[in-house]
Amino acid sequence: MNEFSVNIQSMKNKLLMIIGVLAIAGTSVNAGWFGAGIKPVPYIKVPFVKLVVPVPSAIAGPRAGTEVDANVSTSGANVALPWIKGGVRWPSLTLGEGKSTVTIGPKHRSKAAAAKKKAAAAKKPKGKRKSTK
Question: Per the confidence metrics, is the pTM higher than 0.90?
């Protein structure tokens, strides 16, 4: 009799575990909360935080140039030596979701997205000046 009650208890535990696993698997999470990607720049996204870390670039050979140069700007740093050239763009951290976001670091966009934004700004009509009469 005692052995039979132990089996019922273990079956209850297994049943509760199966129900718990199905409940967790059945809940839906907003797919936009989590993610990772490599285009236009590599990024990792968790709820309310997005970290963008661009891949450094390097060139070796005659196309890299023959001059010595180095510069640092708000978007990244570049170094050039004869036959060697390299650069890195700064990472950025975005906090928030939707329209209410704060970005620490440069905003990384693909060239196509930047061109599209520039074209939209060019099409936007300029406001008329008010007369001072």
Answer: no
